[in-house]
Amino acid sequence: MEKIHSALNRSTLADATAGIALPAYDRDSVRTGIVHLGLGAFHRAHQALYTDTLLARGDTRWGIVGVHLRERRMADVLAAQDYLYSVTERDGGTARSRIVGSLRGALYAPDALPRVLDAIADPHVAIVSLTVTEKGYNLAPASADLDADDAGIRHDVAEPDAPRTTLGVLAAGLRRRPANAPLTIVCCDNMMANGDTLRRLLLQFTELGDPALARRIAESIAFPNTMVDRIVPASTAASLADAQARIGLRDDAAIVCEPFTQWVIEDRFSGPRPAWEDAGALVTHDVHPYEAMKLRLLNGSHSAIAYVGQLRGRATVSDAMADPALAAFVERVMTEDLLPTVTVPAGYDAHAYCRALLERFRNPTLAHQTRQIAMDGTQKVPVRWLPALRESVAAGIERPALERALAAWLHYLASGRSDAGEPLTISDPGADALGSRLRAASHAIEAVQAAFAQTGVFGATPWPAAFVERIAGHLSALREHGTAALLTPARRA
Ligand code: CS2
């Protein structure tokens, strides 16, 4: 019979299974130095863990208050657990668990807005960090500028003290902050030049309603670029049960993720900062090569796995990688088409990096859903695939596998069905507009032209006719024969 475990909280911590690492510091002596917006599994398995390591090394300035902007449940779960949760790193038969203590609070912004704004304004807080996903920034993906027509943005410009968007909440907190309290804003989402991008968006936003604040932000706040990497699937009943059996306590916020973790942070801070390098992060003057390598090779390949995997009925990344035709296709996308567009950072062996990625994708214990990665493609594809395709067409180079992946995404959006005719769940606020353009055209070439005319996604510069024809050819093949038509290697001269 399954054992009934007591719930994880500070009074049961000592009952955790022997050998599970516990916070090795007095949590009562920790002060709040970081406010994090977007308290999802990724933050809790990544930045919060680096910070937990620092607290254990004795620098108690850096406790985290986390803010949920869209979902309430996890804030309640974490509060009931005294903000404690476990992270289990798993690969095949090996697993290692630890209970993390760096979180000091979890607020659901719509219910606790004054506390959220006070936390951002607190002069002891020197870092505001973010993981709000690509769509959390109200960014027009192709231009990387603010989508000023967005209803949430318009609302927050009109009602700056009752903000709903990430930018609105940030601005309202900063407006309350003493001018002489230095702050660094650390964006940790998968966007190009994520720090520079957030800075530009926040300035564009504040210029609409509060130009004095915009000036203050421009003059005094640093926005380092960062590259973050760790595969952290959303939890499932099975992953929670797995974690619970390991730690010997019920943990409704438990995370099961891969052992790999990487964080590269640009050395650009205003004011004090956690020495995250002492916990394994790399603090360096130029993040760009790391970012391009990771966004294109990892995330770009992930998106190919997601769309082709969804079409082929493969629910998880490891299922997709167990499909030989699909695995070979993904390897071509990564190593033949994306890799040549990337300059890897000094000291990296690009082929070894790719081999390691393919191995990480095969991790059978993660159950990373292809549906989860397929979400928000209209935000992700412009970061992960389109820059490589743009650069390639400009140089007159074809990218056979990546071009097929792009056609597969369009087919996924237009048909909403797998090869076997099963309906697919598409979760992407931008998908309807693109899907209806694609469906309205009768011929593949018109469908692709109509899709590319959505310049917010595909950019304002026209794509060459030969490229459009190739994508249309693949789209026709997909419509007639499904993904099998695309997965055989293109013959190279
Ligand atoms: C994934 C990423 O969901 C997705 O779009 O590609 O979350 C990916 O797992 C992480 O960026 C890995 O660092």
UniProtKB/TrEMBL annotation:
Domain called Mannitol dehydrogenase C-terminal: residue spans: 286-478
InterPro entries: 6-PGluconate_DH-like_C_sf, 6PGD_dom2, Mannitol_DH, Mannitol_DH/Oxidoreductase, Mannitol_DH_C, Mannitol_DH_CS, Mannitol_DH_N, NAD(P)-bd_dom_sf
Domain Mannitol dehydrogenase N-terminal: 33-277
Keywords: NAD, Oxidoreductase
One Pfam family matching this protein: Mannitol_dh
SUPFAM superfamilies in the record: 6-phosphogluconate dehydrogenase C-terminal domain-like (SSF48179), NAD(P)-binding Rossmann-fold domains (SSF51735)
Entry keyword annotation includes Electron transport: no
One annotated GO molecular function: oxidoreductase activity, acting on the CH-OH group of donors, NAD or NADP as acceptor
GO process annotations (BP): mannitol metabolic process
Domain of life: Bacteria
Name recorded for this polypeptide: Fructuronate reductase
Organism: Paraburkholderia caballeronis
Lineage: Bacteria, Pseudomonadati, Pseudomonadota, Betaproteobacteria, Burkholderiales
